[in-house]
Design brief:
A 6-stranded parallel sheet has the order 6-7-5-8-9-10, with helices on both faces. It contains 11 helices and 10 strands. Helix 5 crosses helix 11 and helix 8 packs across helix 9. The chain has about 300 residues and is α/β, with parallel strands linked by helices. The protein is globular. Helices cover about 35% and strands about 15% of the residues. The chain has 2 domains: about 90 residues, Rossmann fold, CATH 3.40.50; about 190 residues, Mur-like, catalytic domain (UDP-N-acetylmuramoyl-L-alanine:D-glutamate ligase, 3-Layer(aba) Sandwich), CATH 3.40.1190.10.
């Protein structure tokens, strides 16, 4: 996939017209021929109707790439057979972003529980260090919606297993897997498939990249079967325990939330962030809505 260096217009089918689908269309339509399809045609308002292609027509169209929304289940959708026959053409908005912005520093955070809070907290920490930081992916804006991106911009990307499972080219300078437990098995079918989708952000890294990973036997066993080039750091539960007494934010005093902080402490070391600023930002952090909240006392 060349994309960035290609001068000829390409044919894109954008399947799934939620936030990521709309941002993909806006990003690609100026220099390419773009078509959109959604199982629910009502999602496509009059503004975008001219890009809509019917199922009968798209089945006879030779698309160069199929940009798929993470919400689409390839096994349970109107284009299931078509997608399976054309899996080599299936990409994501993450792939498009990487191909057009390979020099941008990205930090991908994935895992089962606490991805959003950890991503938002890291975003706040980097902002306090005066970095041009963007919060994208499963939280914040779709990744292709960000404007005025420079080589000094840092992207904090919360990545779900769905987004990573469909990606083919995306990679990240720093990949963080905070924890793993059974989830979304109705989509991935097996725990192994679920974990392998998470590991995609590590498998494509090169020798200049870093992966900070929860210390589990399942992850270790699967990584041994891959040709991993990046530096792998397994994080133990007790690492950075000495920093607990510096935390005044009650939201991070329980063991689970503190364990997610450990990954940020480790990342801060590699990025040479100021520890006092990191701690101060954690202590002032307000939890995201609809996570852990006091509902009665």
């Amino acid at each position: 996939m060349k994309l960035k260096n290609e001068t000829l217009s390409k044919n894109f089918l954008i399947y799934g017209f939620g936030k990521s689908g709309i941002s993909s269309l806006k990003y690609l339509k100026k220099k390419n021929r773009c078509f959109i399809f959604d199982d629910d045609k009502k999602k496509i308002n009059n503004k975008y109707k001219k890009f809509f292609i019917s199922k009968s027509k798209l089945l006879n169209n030779n698309f160069d790439y199929i940009v798929i929304s993470p919400g689409i289940n390839i096994n349970r959708c109107q284009l299931s057979n078509y997608l399976k026959k054309n899996q080599k053409k299936v990409i994501t908005d993450f792939d498009i972003f990487y191909k057009f912005n390979p020099e941008v520093l990205t930090i991908t955070i994935t895992g089962t529980n606490g991805k959003s809070t950890t991503s938002k907290l890291l975003y706040d920490i980097l902002k306090k260090h005066h970095y041009d930081t963007r919060l994208t992916g499963n939280i914040g804006n779709p990744i292709l919606e960000e404007k005025r991106v420079t080589k000094n911009t840092i992207f904090v990307i919360e990545a779900s297993s769905y987004q990573l499972a469909y990606s083919k080219y995306f990679k990240s300078k720093f990949s963080i897997i905070i924890n793993i437990s059974p989830d979304h098995l109705e989509r991935h079918n097996t725990m192994k498939n679920y974990v392998l989708s998470k590991l995609k952000c590590v498998i494509r890294q090169n020798e200049n990249d870093v992966a900070i990973i929860t210390n589990t036997n399942l992850l270790k066993d699967l990584l041994r079967t891959k040709n991993i080039k990046s530096k792998i750091i397994y994080v133990s539960k007790n690492k950075y325990a000495y920093l607990k007494n510096k935390l005044s934010n009650d939201n991070f005093k329980n063991s689970t939330n503190f364990q997610n902080l450990i990954f940020l402490f480790e990342l801060s070391k590699y990025m040479k962030l100021n520890l006092k600023t990191v701690i101060k930002t954690i202590n002032k952090f307000k939890p995201l809505k609809f996570r852990q909240e006091v509902i009665h006392q």
